[in-house]
Amino acid sequence: MFEEGKLLIGGGKIPLDMSGRVEGSLSGSYTDEIKGQRTLYHCIYARDGPKGFTMFWKDLYSSCFKNFGDMTRREREVALFLLMKGKVVATNVKVVPSRVNTECLFDIMCKERYMTRMFNYIVFRAEGRVHEDWNDDFFMSYNDLEERFGPNELCTTEWEQEREKLQSNKVKMVPRQLGGVEEARQGPGLGPTEAMYKEAPFHFKVFVYTVIDKLDMLRAEVKRIAFNARHLV
Length: 233
Hints:
With 233 residues, the protein is mainly α. It has two domains: 15-59, no CATH class; 65-232, no CATH class. Helix content is 42%, strand content 9%. It has helices spanning 73-84, 102-126, 142-149, 156-165, 180-185, 190-198, 202-211, 215-232; strands at 28-34, 37-45, 54-58. A three-stranded antiparallel β-sheet has the order 1-2-3, with no helix packed on it. Strand 1 (28-34) and strand 2 form a beta hairpin.
């Protein structure tokens, strides 16, 4: 769709809706070399203008999507939804507040992975599992979580509202994906996740414990922390 001029580019415009120029070129993809650096361009026939007018624009920087090579099903759905709604502009430069660029999209993906990891960990704790259980057989994707806890009102709307409350600086250190190679590279993956949990926003803990119907565990945790704090004074 990007190559066909149907998605937003820099400036928040769609190539199909932009005025064309006389270039003497056919529609398709072309490369241009400046100072030894090759740049890919896309070309389409313009709707606005006389017959034969064309519209050119640069291809996406490959670095824009280098972090999205291992997107989960949920993450692909989020990215596609934002693109179709026109909320994501296919550029790596800053855009107006009402839209996000690909760098902002990466922040959204980090938040998604943070939430999934923390949700898994809280369920892990609530079920009293042992260290050896923290593996791919236990891990649940967002779709798995929604299927399991949907009856407890876990839904996309509530999930995305919680996502909006998260600060980007809190989620930057989340591994690219829960489980698999990235988990193994951190050594005992449970350890780093436990550390993340201690710093997790309280509103998110309330959200998860409420959904899994274990809010009493969070209350006990708060009381324990308060008790320990009093004895440190």
